[in-house]
Amino acid sequence: MPLEKNLGPIVQTIKENGSVAITQSGPLDKQSATKVVETWQFTKTKALGKNYEDNLLEEILTDPALSDWKSRAKELKASNSYLQYEVKSSEVDKVTPDGDTKAKVVAKISESRNYFSNGELDRSAS
After folding, report:
1. What is the rounded average pLDDT of the residues 81-88?
2. What DSSP line would sit under the chain, residue for residue?
3. Is the pTM of this model over 0.90?
C-alpha cells in the first residue's frame, strides 16, 4: 500500500490518541519509518473501527490508496460492521529512499483482527 504523502506537511495531530504524525527533513530513516508505520496502524484501527473515523485516512494516505481505504470504511459502515485490530508487533526491516519525498519501506507487522457485524463478533470473518 503506497504511503506516498510528503513527510514535510504531515504535522497534523491524529485525533484522540494525541499522537502526532512525524516530520522529517531529508531522506526517511528507519526510526521515522517506524513512526509512519505505527501511525498507519493507529489510523487504520480508527478508520475501520466502531466509530468509523475515516477522515483520519487523509492524514496519512494519498490516492489511490486513500480512495480504496475510504471505500472499505464506507462499506463497513453501510453494513453496520466494523473491525477491531490489535497490533502484536511491528518492525521496519528496510528503508529505501526514492527521491527527496518518498521512500519504500519493508516492514513486518503481526496483528489480529476481529470482525463485528451488528455489534456481535463474527468469528468466521475474523
Report:
1. 95
2. ------STT--PBPTTT--B----SSS--HHHHHHHHHHHHHHHHHHSSTT--GGGGGGT--TTHHHHHHHHHHHHHHTTEEEEEEEEEEEEEEEEE-SSS-EEEEEEEEEEEEEEETTEE-GGG-
3. no
